[in-house]
Amino acid sequence: MNRAYYNNSILGFLKDDSNYILGKLSLNHTNRHLEDLQKNAWVEQIEILKRELQEFEGEIYFEFQIPRMGKRVDNIIIINDCIFVVEFKVGDEKYEKHAELQVIDYSLDLQNFHEGSHHAKLIPVLVSTNAKALPFNVDEVLELNKVAKCNKFTIKETLSEFLINPYNKLDTIIWENSKYKPTPTIIEFAQALYKGHNVEEISRHDSDKINLTKTSDCINRVIEYSKNNNKKSICFITGVPGAGKTLAGLNIANERMKADEDEHAVFLSGNGPLVDVLREALAMDLFKTIKENGEKITKGDARRRTSAFIQNIHHFRDEYLKNTIEPTEKVVVFDEAQRAWTKQQANSFMKRKKGIENFGMSEPEFLIDVMNRHQDWCTIVCLIGGGQEINTGEAGLEEWVNAFENNYKDWNIHFSNLIVDSPNYIKTDKHKNWLKNNAHSEQELHLSASVRSFRSELVSEFVHELLELNLEKARELFLEVNKTFPIVLTRNLGKAKEWLRSKSKGTERIGLVASSGARRLKALGLDVKNEISAPNWFLNDSDDIRSSYFLEDIATEFDIQGLEIDRTCLTWGANFHIDNHEWKYQSFKGTKWMNINQEISKDYLKNTYRVLLTRARQGMIIFIPKGSDIDQTRPNSFYDGTYSYLKEIGLEELF
Fold first, then answer.
1. Phi, psi of 392 (to 5 degrees)
2. 210-275+313-447 architecture in CATH?
3. Among 17, 411, 624, 627, which one is least packed by beta carbons within 10 Å?
4. 548 or 314, which is more confident
């Protein structure tokens, strides 16, 4: 695996000359700005471990790579059946909270994504060399809820606490060569790509399923063909919810930026919160990295330097609305392309906001028209989420097909085979048949493996059956999903928050989510009309009251679509509930609920709950309020049917 700067048996480490070990570490270290500071830390670390490990047998690794996080843990020490994940803070006299969270995060990463560590005893150890030794609970440390804390003189004593059975031995050869299948959050993925990591380092790539690597290879072939033959092309990528369509888009934009700067590849999204969160995350990470390197940078400079990689699609649209010039960009990736506006919605917006009468085009047609200004070649990549249209006026994929059928027949069109094989993408046979006869079907353009809910790839399928009221199928899938991806039910909001906090370890993110139409949650202190700052909610740490961790501000489908967190509490509203074995669709107007009768509006509302039910990576609790006898907007009938249905599926209730 060779993921460490230096590794050896403990016996070999004790025999090796300290200068030789230091030389190996220095040779592999790439950050020259911190070399002296880092060397001094290594010198003390080597000296301490040579003294403290005298009586142990096992393996030791220095600067062990944690690819998903783009970090390296100071030491992995394997003795008997224990894997000690050790973080040194040389010279520290306290055990800082951020350091505790850091070493727990390293341990969780190994447990979740490294096959050899799935069922191993992982022990997070924080060594603050000059601090006082503190007691710890062995069981809590083994559960990765707490950290074993020690100083430079108590490492031996600390490790010994966990070495209960000397006859149980971990096979370190098998462990070293176990597969590492990271599934980063979209935020971690964007940060790692921007830093120059390869997609194969930071994402899982199961050989039996279409994944990011295979999809990117297919897109790159199309781009190179278009470039070499002066052709214009478009690719439609689909995928199950959580399969990483946005990750694929970010990767393609990043790869093309590196392949040829003159292509000016860009990732465009109309999802404002997603753009804001990713751009702020990149800027924060760049600011931190440059400061750690001893260089000067302002947060404003960091934001400017990272802004070109990810842009708002509406700014792109407005730029080329004003100017009929050939665009700079040769390769554009449109995220959530199914959400582009219909002709009617685009006309209405252009008249109201831009003063343009008779705009005459749908948003997909206009975006194609802009790229069609190129005299030689270009490539559009559209990321399509099936069943995720949640706004009035979102065109779906049909409008993209209409544009090519009517006006741009010289383009090469490449589409995922699922577009014509599944009802989730195109509903009309007319559009499906046109694609079959005029475009190229590519299996590699459908991402078939979920990477969001890494604990269970069946979550999106389960959610689909739940929403379709297929009780037996939903019950069958739930039995499988719940083994690794817990989904529980409660009618007590306090219990829901308690469950989230009890399950969260390290910096695993938790938060409340709800439909923007669930207006009467306000009676419970949950106001979905209260706008949140998505960067604060998604990025700020647990001591910030604006962050998701505080479980005060609630994110709606508009805030969280395209993003994800570790565990969610979905607070179910009265706008979408079960009555007499059917979904009832409602919107709140003034002081009363109104029935939703239009089929397309019903689809938007069901898709809202599809989005909310698929935002968690590791588990979810569903909170269904109790009704009120004195509030006519919250009768029991608006909640009890949904509650009974979820109980029938098999969800355990927390009281």
1. -60, 135
2. 3-Layer(aba) Sandwich (3.40)
3. 17
4. 548
